[in-house]
């Protein structure tokens, strides 16, 4: 066959199916989520970001599609899919509205997947079905006012009763996505990390329900740079008595749960950056084809070509890296931290850079809300901070690479 006879579209489809949609089920999932995102998520994005409000009605529709428990076994109301499926959902939804997707991630990955992988049968049976339908909106509490990257420096404590039947939680958690849904009360349930021993590593994880006495909403975090439709808050524990059956995993054993779930969290955050980048590339490419200056489309000018071409190449590089890591991730295990850090580090910066170029290509039009790229740019910055700062990823990756100082696989 001559080079001219090669069907490039068919070849691209095959390559795409192999990497980004490894099965027909994944391809169908992508088509479903993209269609839903275009018709339901994208139209509401600017309104809810300006209001700084969580769209509960839309969240329930996501539950109707079976996406809130995408990685959860069907026994507990989920879809029973893998990390690649989680990437697909986060990329497609983030291209429509990163802020709404962040609330989705806090619920579906930080609570639902976390409990699915680390909880016992009774806990999963009690909490996951309602979480998978959207009847309950949940989150996770790890960061504190004085403990972010230094997470094992947390001060929140859980003190076991003399008879071992309860734990009493005291402290507060900060920067909690879904910490409030309405600005008045907390969300419905949370997985909370708390200190249960003297050693730094002696941390445990607990299920805490909205109506437990002493569990209250602290400050609502307002006027954020981006991710404004994802509500963020402080949550407070003042002698909150939690039954021992709400201990998730082993006492003092939550560091393992934390590390396991951080891997899928970081891969999902990388996928969110992919969505931001893809939307930005689409907007700048279409705009540059239509916008006329000096008698021709601005995509004929080298300066604009560089912005568009570099952005597409970086997006595709990040996409290949992310989906390759996701394909090899075992949700029930851990040990892929090097590349979970790597994809988050690369894609977070890439997404912000691509959104920045989109603003530059659009000029004044990129600086206002109509084309959404200014929102994408503001939202992208959070992904260099949340789920691990760039600096934390550097530290983690060099630590892991020291083990491979002679050769890389």
Features:
409 residues; alpha+beta; Butyryl-CoA Dehydrogenase, subunit A, domain 3; four-stranded antiparallel sheet; globular; disordered N terminus
Describe the model.
It holds the Pfam family Acyl-CoA_dh_M. InterPro entries: Acyl-CoA_DH_CS, Acyl-CoA_Oxase/DH_mid-dom, Acyl-CoA_Oxase/DH_mid-dom_sf, AcylCo_DH-like_C, AcylCo_DH/oxidase_C, AcylCoA_DH/ox_N, AcylCoA_DH/ox_N_sf, AcylCoA_DH/oxidase_NM_dom_sf. One of its GO terms (biological process) is L-leucine catabolic process. It catalyses: (2S)-2-methylbutanoyl-CoA + oxidized [electron-transfer flavoprotein] + H(+) = (2E)-2-methylbut-2-enoyl-CoA + reduced [electron-transfer flavoprotein]. This is Isovaleryl-CoA dehydrogenase. It is built from 12 helices and 10 strands. The two termini are 35 Å apart. The protein is α+β, with helices and mostly antiparallel strands and 409 residues long. The chain has 3 domains: 136 residues, Orthogonal Bundle (Butyryl-Coa Dehydrogenase, subunit A, domain 1), CATH 1.10.540.10; 116 residues, Butyryl-CoA Dehydrogenase, subunit A, domain 2; 150 residues, Butyryl-CoA Dehydrogenase, subunit A, domain 3. It is globular. Helices cover 50% and strands 14% of the residues. The strands form 3 sheets. The protein has a 4-stranded mixed sheet, with helices on one face. Strands 2-3-7-6 form a 4-stranded antiparallel sheet, with helices on one face. The protein has a two-stranded antiparallel sheet with strand order 9-10. A hairpin with a 5-residue loop joins β2 and β3.
